[in-house]
Amino acid sequence: MEERIAELTSVYKALAAQRAPWETWWDRLRDYVLPRRLNREGEVSLPSRDAMDRMTDTTAVEACQKLASGHMSYITPSHDVWFKWSAPDDQGGDEAEAWYNQCSEVALKELSVSNFYTEIHECFLDRVALGTGSLFTGTSADGRLLFTNIPCGQFACAENAEGRVDTYVREFTFTAHQARSMFGLKALGPRAREVLERGGNPYATSLRFLHVVRPRTRRSRRRVQASHMPFESVYLSLDDQVIVEEGGYMEFPYLVTRFLKWGNGPYGLAPGRLVFPAIQQAQFLNRILDTLGEVAAFPRILELASQIGEVDLRAGGRTVITPEAASLHLPREWATQGRYDIGMDRLAQKQEAIKRAYYLPMLELWSGHHGSMTATEVMARENERVLMFSPSFTLFVSDLYSTMARIFSLLFRMGKFPRPPRAVLRQGRDGTMQVGEPRVVYQSKIALVLRRLQNEGMDRSLQRLNMMMQAAPDLADHVDWDACLRLCARVGGAP
Fold first, then answer.
1. How many angstroms separate the Cα of 342 from the Cα of each of 26, 339, 349, 356?
2. Could you read off the pLDDT of 141-182 as tens digits, one per residue?
3. Shortest CA distance to 438 belongs to which of 165, 110, 96, 135?
4. Among residues 273, 308, 334, which one ends one of the domains?
5. How many domains does the chain have?
6. Residue 204's domain spans which residues?
7. Which residue in 376, 381, 387, 366 sits closest to 450, CA to CA?
8. How far is CA 241 from its chain centroid?
9. CA–CA separation, 61 vs 270, rounded Å?
């Protein structure tokens, strides 16, 4: 047992060492972009005094909030159908497709009554502000889906050979009361039991734990026990150095989503890191402009030493001066010649660079700020800006794959779906008949625009065909009009 505990601890230390170079950047970005965020220790990360003094420009903070809200509105909107499951192949026909569509409707209802949209927004904030967000998917005691956002910095992870995160170690704290509720009194170590059994304060005593999830190397595919599930799950008490719970997962339970990939590591690149000099300069320029504004409103006064206390700065005030002061033109304003307009121009440039990095021009188009542009110009501009955002969206879709598969499997095992027809059954690796894992078709705003761009070639071909059919009407026989209609309906987001 001691060897196993030491091995699990060493896994965490190794992954934490790989994460260490990122932590400095995360702390800096928290100060400038997301000051209200939780820190690595799980405590409220209030900015330091120096950080608060630097916060003179909130462009990056507002841009981060808007882009995270844009993720909610245009990728996973709670008020709309943002995905549907489809049959993994064409073998089941319309019967299989109809069943997967019914499952999609059930899943959307289950997500709406869970805490998914609350927690995914927190995950999006980390994704946008720090480059990496994480979300745990499980079930509650009352049979509902349960999600937990894991703040960036509280976990360490690793990817497999395919570039998917499959190893995850989370460090967290529980009160003694929470630990008893989750693990039971008998599973806890001596320190926790002492607090709970000898009259300590279970609500104020904090205990540290590790949660290690990784692929299980030795298991039997024919056994359904937790000890033979594909992914190993171990909870380790760091205070008592004991394993308090050991089990497994059928699917990988943690989502790790990156804004953009950065090298070969499992952590992502935040947009704020690309424009961090502009964020810092915007703070500096705002301080300078504030100083210039104060000087203009309350100018510096140059006066003789003998005039101290004699110069009346009130409106309509009168100051009696000596011939000596008159010859020197004193008192007078001094050092008030700063170029406020140049500072404003430079600040506007920095703020515009920050807004572009956080894709605010794309969000403004969708919010109705079109100016004098025609509908064609709006569509062209929309296509251009969504294409720039497509790498981040595509990466999110790839990262979300395992979570969508887990949601489907959890709801299926909980009996939430209708009875599956034979058309959806497929033979598994162990020879048993299983429900085929569905394809995920995203129908959010961004997904539909990207799909529209991919199908513009078909539209142009049909336009040319229409011109050619005026001379040769028989050319229409070369087109599968039913397939074209279905494709157009899917692109338009029709059910």
1. 32, 6, 11, 21
2. 888 999 999 999 999 999 999 889 999 999 999 999 999 999
3. 96
4. 273
5. 2
6. 2-57+82-273
7. 387
8. 33
9. 13
